[in-house]
Amino acid sequence: MSKPGEPRWPSPWGEGRPGWHIECSVMASEILGAQIDVHVGGIDLAFPHHDNELCQSEAHFENHQWVNYFMHAGHLNIEGLKMSKSLKNFITIKEALNKYSSRQIRTLFLLSQWNKPLFFDAKSMEEAIVIEKSLSNFFANTTALLREFRLRQSESDACRHTLAPELDLLEALKDAKSQVHSALLDSFDTPTAMRAIQEIVSRTNTYLQRGRDNIDLQIVQTVVEYVSRIMRMFGMSNESSALGWGSSAASSDGQGAADRESILLPVARVLSDFRDVVRELALSGGDKQALLKLCDKIRDSDLPELGVIIDDHGDGRALVKIADPEEIQRDRERQEAEIAQRLLTKQLQAQKAEEKRQGRLAKGKQSPEEMFRTPEMLELYSAWDEHGIPTKDKAGEELTKNKVKKLAKEYDAQKKLHEKYLESLNA
Question: Counting Cβ atoms within 10 Å, is residue 114 exposed (0-12), middle (13-18) or buried (19+)?
Fold first, then answer.
């Protein structure tokens, strides 16, 4: 029925107006016909909007199932509150992308069940950033290892005897595939699927700690290919054949990741070999500090700007990884911000501690013998012992043992404060 002041038309049930329920029914039916396979919308639309759509459309088409499946998504909550313009906590995708990468935001989405509330806040984004970073490191390390083997060794060298560690990793991969498959069959349970991916990534990282000369790269590649495929399926990357993030490492001029690697890798390898030799010379003699400083500059500054990361390994050979320069810079800025925040927190804590110390010193300026003889205390007590602790109240009555004991504790505390104060004067 129309409310006062609203447009109205006559109907068998009184004057009313077509609402948005009938509008949606008409639009959907015009395009999709008498039956819809999947109908999506926010959970707040389940009733009454979608119920009204069903009533109207099923009555019109004279069937009993206008929609086969409804998918009602959970609300987006900003800092614990439902996002809405009325609360002035509305954040656009563009605004979010100014602070976080698209992959970090997608990771947050994957960590939340699609039909439950999604919490967008600093804590949840930090969790998403950590997980996305762990995946990025995994892809960078494994693809670098695979690339190193292709450069340094023959294909036969990459295949080794399958021993217990290899069998364990293969079994872990089998479990991960089963868990991911079951999770996605269970109403697209992406949080559980992501936990399975995190587990196989962790198991593979543990396996890689055996050292590059003691691992089976074919098994590692099988794991990386599977994790990459699942990430592509989740929309985390858009290259069908690449390992890892694929095109996320593409250069700004539109070249693919493979073209970029073919250009950068020879230069990166030369620089890495140079750095290995220089580092060895510096450690064996000569001006070590200057040489090591140069090595650190190449590793920490020059190469990252080109999208090249060099990781030192215990065997003396550096591992070269190709990454997106923008992501490296963004990660560096985030780390610098975290360091600055920790430094600020430490400074504030030190400031508070100093203020507290100064407060104790100021309080300790008064000697314990004088603390119970101030004008205020003279209104309460009339007799004191040799230390200045009250023994009688103003009326001349003896204080109780408990009262004297309590005052004695206060005296002892003030004595310690006064001693600290005197020490500060002599410091």
Answer: middle
